[in-house]
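Dear U.,

For the methods section draft, I wanted the exact inputs and outputs in one place so we can describe them consistently. I've listed the two proteins in the order they'll appear in the manuscript figures. Please don't edit the token lines directly; just add comments below if something needs changing.

First protein:
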Amino acid sequence: MTSYADRDGKIWMDGQMVDWRDANVHILTHALHYASSVFEGERAYGGKIFLSRRHSERLHFSAGELDFEIPWTVDEIEAAKQQVLSVNGLSDAYIRAVAWRGAGEDMGVASARNPVRLAIAAWEWGSYYGDAKMKGAKLDIAKWKRPSPETIPVHAKAAGLYMICTMSKHTAEARGCSDALFMDYRGYVAEATGANIFFVRDGEVHTPKPDCFLNGLTRQTVIGMLKDRQINVHERHIEPAELEGFEQCWLTGSAAEVTPVGQIGDFRFDVGQMTRDMTEAYERLVRS
């Protein structure tokens, strides 16, 4: 595997295209020390970024939640993303836009005088969960919990919120799993480390209510697809004990797309017809 720091190509950085290997920041960048960073993960299919503008709008929203303003408009970010794809000759690709407080006059918790920076990179990236896309991912159950909205801006796509995700995914992979499932601060089923989760029982769909974690754009898209098919969708609090009674399960996310789940802890699920239908329907939608 080639290091992400050592690749050919161009990265858009603060309004300029720079060589991939030169897209660097100073060691005293505020975001490195205090997690003052927000980002978006997006996929392009056939040169078109799925839900591109909504991702750019959410990037601005997330920055506002962290008390900073991105000095590029949504339209400018949209143009920059397309430029990155074009310059790098990419059609099917993953796009990462990241905004952060850089190095400046402040080097403490406060950083109001530091510049806000923005970078956009893109690269070819296959299935996020590898062959789990076909046979169903295996999930561990994380020891950490998603935090209360009273403790952190839970609806921002902010770097700091992923600290426990990294630790939980490392533990899961060491146990032979693809990912980990979080409970929330109350003990309800929440989400995976980078994807929302859905369950099927008796032909109806159940998914955790996103009142303390990110309401993913792919999650919203899939709910709309299910409702278009006249399938009942229950957005609600789900107790861990209910996992035993669900028949099917899948994950959703811009990187994960729609990925079947075959096992969570000791609970097993079929990669059933509805799961396969939604996986295939999402693939058709993003390429339409």
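Second protein (the one for the lower panel):
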Amino acid sequence: MRLIRSGALPPEVNLALDEALLRSGRETLRLYAWDPPGLSIGFFQRAAGIACPPGFRLVRRPTGGGAIAHTGELTISWIGARRRVEEVYGEMNAIVGRALASFGVRVVPGMGEPEAAPKGLCFDAHTCYDLLAGGRKLFGSAQRRGGGRFLLHGTLPLERNPLSEGAISLSEAAGRTVDRAEAEAAVIRAAEGAWGRKFLAETPSAGEWQMAERLVSERYGNAAWTLRR
């Protein structure tokens, strides 16, 4: 499986690249951050009533779920062959749970069914597909499915996010500072152990970047598309 460690990219580029990778169809695990910070709203979520904080860029994700303030976090993007929704969530949650355990953090599943188009911030509530530590949400994810493939977006806060009061960060749960490089390494080890294979560290192809650039123009960097709902 291909591994892409993108570092920090602008919000519209991150999401456009994820859709480009989904369209290309190659099984990929991508790990990244956001610079500048982004406020992403779910694909089906209404933009009305959602205020974008100063210094953040408002974008619409290709995946569902509620709004997420992306700052001080590790974002996980996974593209694979289509299978049952709950299987995808379960597999990634097991990997993230194993990675968190390496920091001495124990997690349990959340409760409740996800809404198709929820209101407000994603980390102010939790569903059966989320992971909780100390009763607070530590990891959440959402999916997009199409063309025989899926895209999963997972969010793991590394430091306290004042815009997500319902969340707990990995650093808070672990009782020490955990930086992105350390968190990425733990996720990679856990994924390789779960899948029984080593990753191939690569970068997106020229064609995937070309597709991402087009999607930035048409969708993710286009305010009319972001605010269409």
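Candidate sentences for the figure legend, describing the second protein: Residues 79 and 151 are 5 Å apart (CA to CA). The chain is about 30% helix and 25% strand.

Thanks,
Y.
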